[in-house]
Design brief:
The complex is a heterodimer of chains A (114) and B (114).
Chain A lengths: L4 E3 L2 E4 L5 E6 L6 E7 L6 E7 L2 E5 L7 E4 L6 E5 L8 E8 L8 E2 L3 E5 L1
Parallel strand pairs in A: 2-11
Antiparallel strand pairs in A: 1-3, 3-8, 4-5, 4-9, 5-6, 7-8, 9-10, 9-11
Chain B lengths: L3 E3 L2 E5 L4 E6 L6 E7 L6 E7 L5 E3 L2 E6 L4 E6 L8 E8 L10 E3 L3 E6 L1
Parallel strand pairs in B: 2-11
Antiparallel strand pairs in B: 1-3, 3-8, 4-5, 4-9, 6-7, 7-8, 9-10, 9-11
Classes of the chains: A mainly beta (114), B mainly beta (114).
C-alpha cells in the first residue's frame, strides 16, 4: 500500500491560465474522489468516480472544472481559465468498493492563482 | 448541509480528556471522523452507522445518536500526538453514491501541550 499520490504538490499560476492535477489512487481501490479545502474549512466534495464512470458531481463545480479517470486508474482534474477564488488545496481520495470504506486521502495539490 | 462542530478549538495538557461534538440539522446515516495534522492529509479515525454504536480507536472513541442527529468524539488521556484538526463528515443517504459523498464540518483544532 503506497498510499494516494498527487502531483504536483504545489502549483502557482496566473489568472486565466489552465492547470491540470494528477491523482494516483491506491491500486486496489475502485472509488476515487476529489475534494477542495480552503484555510479553516473542512474538505468540500467536488466529484466522485467509480472505476472510470463519473457518478457524482457537486453543484459547486463550475463548467471550468473537468475531471477524468481513463481506464479507471489515475485521475486528472483540470481547471480552465483559473480565477483567484480557485486558490485552495485540492485533495484526492480513494476507497474500496464495499460498504462504508474509509477514504484514504493524498497530500493534496496546493494551487495559488495570482 | 454542513454539520456543525463544537468547540472550534481546545487546548489540553497531556493526560486530559476532551469531547468534540458534531451535529446536523438533517437526518444522519453515518458519521465519519478524520484527523488532519498541519500540512498533511486527513487521516481516517472511524465510521459510525445508524444504531448508536460506539466505536473505539486507541484511546479515542465515539458515539452516534441518530435521534439527536449528533455524534461525539471522546479523547481520553490525551497524548501530544493527538494534536491536529478533527473533522466530522456526514453522508447524505444510507446507500448508493450518497452514502460516501461526505459533507465535512469546519473542524475542531485540538492542541495538546506538555
Amino acid at each position: 500500500d503506497t498510499g494516494v499520490s498527487q502531483d504536483p504538490r504545489h502549483k502557482i499560476t496566473k489568472r486565466g491560465q489552465n492547470v491540470t492535477f494528477r491523482c494516483d489512487p491506491i491500486s486496489e481501490h475502485n472509488r476515487l474522489y476529489w475534494y477542495r479545502q480552503t484555510l479553516g474549512q473542512g474538505p468540500e466534495f467536488l466529484t466522485y468516480f467509480q472505476n472510470e464512470a463519473q457518478l457524482e458531481k457537486s453543484r459547486l463545480l463550475s463548467d471550468r472544472f473537468s475531471a477524468e479517470r481513463p481506464k479507471g486508474s489515475f485521475s486528472t482534474l483540470e481547471i480552465q481559465r483559473t480565477e483567484q477564488g480557485d486558490s485552495a488545496m485540492y485533495l484526492c481520495a480513494s476507497s474500496q468498493r464495499h460498504g462504508y470504506s474509509p477514504l484514504h486521502f493524498g497530500n493534496g495539490t496546493r494551487l495559488t492563482v495570482t | 448541509q454542513q454539520p456543525v462542530q463544537s468547540p472550534q478549538a481546545v487546548i489540553l495538557r497531556e493526560g486530559e480528556d476532551a469531547v468534540i461534538n458534531c451535529s446536523s440539522s438533517k437526518a444522519l446515516y453515518s458519521v465519519h471522523w478524520y484527523r488532519q495534522k498541519h500540512g498533511e492529509a486527513p487521516v481516517f479515525l472511524m465510521i459510525l452507522l445508524k444504531g448508536g454504536e460506539q466505536k473505539g480507536h486507541e484511546k479515542i472513541s465515539a458515539s452516534f445518536n441518530e435521534k439527536k442527529q449528533q455524534s461525539s468524539l471522546y479523547l481520553t488521556a490525551s497524548q501530544l500526538s493527538y494534536s491536529g484538526t478533527y473533522f466530522c463528515g456526514t453522508a447524505k443517504s444510507y446507500s448508493g453514491a450518497g452514502s460516501y459523498q461526505l459533507t465535512f464540518g469546519k473542524g475542531t483544532k485540538l492542541s495538546v501541550i506538555p
